[in-house]
Fold each of these.
Amino acid sequence: MNIGIAIRSIRRQLGITQYELAEKCNISQTSLSQIENGIKRPSNRTIKKVCEVLEIPESVIYILGMQETDVPQSRKSVYDMLFPSIKSMALQIVSSEHRQLVENYDIAV
C-alpha cells in the first residue's frame, strides 16, 4: 500500500503544491514530502484531513494506494478479476469534477 503515491498524484493533478496542501492540512511540508515519498506513513487523522482538503472520499486514497504487491499470490486471480470493478465503484462515489482525475490515474505497480 502506497498512500503517498496516491496523494501526490491527486495533489499534482489538482495543481496544488506540497506547501499549500500541507498548510491546509496543518502539517509540515517536510512531513507531507515524507508521506508522498513513502518514508512516513500518514496517521488516520492526516489521511482524513488530506481527503477533506482534496475533496475526495477516503476510500479513493486507499484504492489508488493499493499495489499488486499488497495482494498475496494465492489471491492474485481474484484481485485481477475484482479490482477493475472496485475502481469503477470508487469512481461512482467521486464527485463529478474529480471523476476525470481518478479515471486517468495510473495505479503504481
Note: The mean pLDDT is 83.
Amino acid sequence: MMPPPGVPSEERLIARFRAHARRLFWSALLLIATFGATAYLYGNLPAPFEDWMLLSAAGTIILLLVVLPFVVWLSRTTTITTRRIIVRRGIGARQRREMSHARGYTIAVRRGPLQRLWGTATITLSNGVDDPLRLVEVPNATLVHETLADQIEVSQILAHRDAQAGGESFASA
C-alpha cells in the first residue's frame, strides 16, 4: 500500500546484514590449532619454560587473532530500509554513512572467483556527489542488488508523485 500524496511514507526495515562470515575462517582454524597445541604442550614443556607462559601465549594469540577480528566483524552492519541505506562501522568511535534511495544512485557489482564460490560480491553505490559507498563481501548479493534497484525505483516514483501533487495544489490556487 502506498501512502496518499503528500503524506510521508513510513520507514520500514527491509534487511540488516554483515559481511560474509568466511572472513573468520582463519581465525576459527587458529582457535582450534591453539587449543590443540596448548592441550598437547601443557605439562610437557622443556625446562626453561613453564605452563603459565604457554597459557599466556595462547591467551594472547586468541585475543589478538581470534577475538579481535570477530569483534571487528560484528561491529560492521549494513541496514536497508524503505528510505535509505545505513552503514555502521567502528568499535569505540562509530562511523555512520547513509545514502537515500530518493536521490538515486548507480549500483556496481563486482564478483571475484572466490566471491562467486561463496555467493558474495562487492557492491559499490555512487550518487555522483558523495564518495562511493562500498559494501564488501555482501551475502546473497544478487538479492541485495535487486532490492536496492527496486527501492530506488519506488522512492523516485513516490518523490515524483509527491512533486506532481504539490505542483497541482499550487496551480489550482
Note: The chain has a mean pLDDT of 89.
Amino acid sequence: MKTKISINKNIVFIGLPGCGKTAIGKEVSKRLSLPFCDIDTYIEKEEGKLIKEIFLQGEDYFRRLESQAIEEISKNYPSIISTGGGSIKIHSNMEALQKNAVIIFINRPVEHIIQDVDISARPLLAEGSAKLYELYIERYPLYKKYCDIEVFNDTDFNEVVDKVMQFIFARF
C-alpha cells in the first residue's frame, strides 16, 4: 500500500546488525514512495569492495568512510536511510543525521537475530554470537539516546512496518 503524506525530513533507522533496519527501511520506502539508502551498500558501491573487505583495513578506516557517507546521504532529504549498527558510536554521525531526520531505533531481541541472521557474514560478528550480546550492551544506551522512537521487532514483519508507519503518520 503506497501512501502519500508530506514528509520534509529523512527517516533514519538505527539498531544492531540484523535487527531489520534495511528490510523495514525498504518497505517503508516503498509505501511512502521515497528513495531508500542503506549506508553500507552506499559505501560498498563507492569503494568497489564489500564491507568485510573494507574491514580488513581496520574498523577505524571503515568508520571514517561511514562518517563521510552519512554526511553526504543525510543531506538528501526526504529519504529513508538504514545506518550501520555502529554508526551511533560517532557523535558527529548522529549530529549530521539529527539535523533533518526522525530517528527510529529498531530493537530486536538478540536471540532472534542469532536465529535468523548469518552472523558470520557480518565483520564485527564473525567472532560468534557472544559478540552480538557485547554490542547490545555497549550500544543500547546510544540507540536510546539518539532515537525519536523505539520500535520492537519481535513480531510479524508487516506488524513492525505498520508500527513504524503509524509513528510516521503521527509525526508528519
Note: The radius of gyration is 15 Å.
